[in-house]
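Re: weekly structure request thread

Next one in the queue (384 aa):
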Amino acid sequence: MRLEPVIGDDPRDIMRGLRSALHGAGPALGLGMVHDLPAEVRAGTAVVVTTSGSTGVPKSVILSRDALTASAMATSARIGDGAWLLALPASYVAGMQVLVRSIVADREPAWLTGAFTPQTFSAAALMMVSTDQGIRVPTYTSLVPAQLSKLLDAAAEDSTVLAALQSFETILVGGQAIAAATLERAEDAGVRVVRTYGSTETSGGCIYDGQPLRGVSVRITDGEVQVAGPTLADGYLADSAATEAAFLRDESGTRWYRTGDAGIIEDGILRVRGRIDNVIVSGGINVSLDRVERIVRTIPGLESAVVVGVSDDRWGEASVVVVPRGEALRRSESTQLEEARVAVSEQIGAHARPTRLVLVDDLATLPSGKPDRETIRAAVAALH
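Done, posted below.
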């Protein structure tokens, strides 16, 4: 089967190719592809998504028609049918799935005119409000936490933005952990948010508010979150070693994806604790930077902070808090750093306390909207 690269992330081009690929009439799409990948893929493949992720290591994930369709139908079964607004890059799995859900539901999606801003988002959202035979058509969208936070900030001053947010039946928010303070702000504003967990290898979000979608199973093995079900990718293109390492079969033949995330299941709810490998050794003790970041984000003014690890003469490695300048200046830098250090010390220990708070004009992000942690870490290290 032929693999046809799509240049850029114009949603119109991707929508046309997706519709053909999902119906089996056209070639598989190659999104974000690098030039040295094979031009042929196995039958049934709909999309190959190449994404560098936050570590900068390219992965070309093979997603079948069946996996993408199963994901879309499971989402519909959980939150309902309706019209979707694309507010994320269509070449990444979360944005692409907005288009897949629209195709499966036989509805045309809406998308923003121009770059993402509270104004373009609101204009697109409010234009979607409609009825069918006198019954309101539910609307949905998918965002990353930084987008939701930006919209909530704007909504505090602009009733049009607030109305746009409130118009959605459900807003899926994923791609990274969302701060509890942001969830509380959304709830207080009457915005209906569902937290999603998943990856390109699971066809996007497959666990909503800690509970697996229909057909999806989750387990914790040696502290690692592992996922099974019909939404799993076939593997990595032209990389059998990586496929075998990430996907395994148990004694019953069930195929599981090793997420690389640490987590626990409490009362049937999955709670993700961060990347297993996002760890530094500070003073001879392992420190999860994801755990430090979750604690730091509870401090007022640091809700969007990113925590990275850098070399440290005293501790060997230490954590550093990086935050957008405009947010951090709500209160003094020294006060915020001290509050963060106290909170981390109380919940983890003194060895995990961040050593510095670095202000930046803007946090570097990947095209998907997630923080580009490697670029942020390198920039902080260069300041040392």
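The radius of gyration is 21 Å. The mean pLDDT is 91.
Next request, please.
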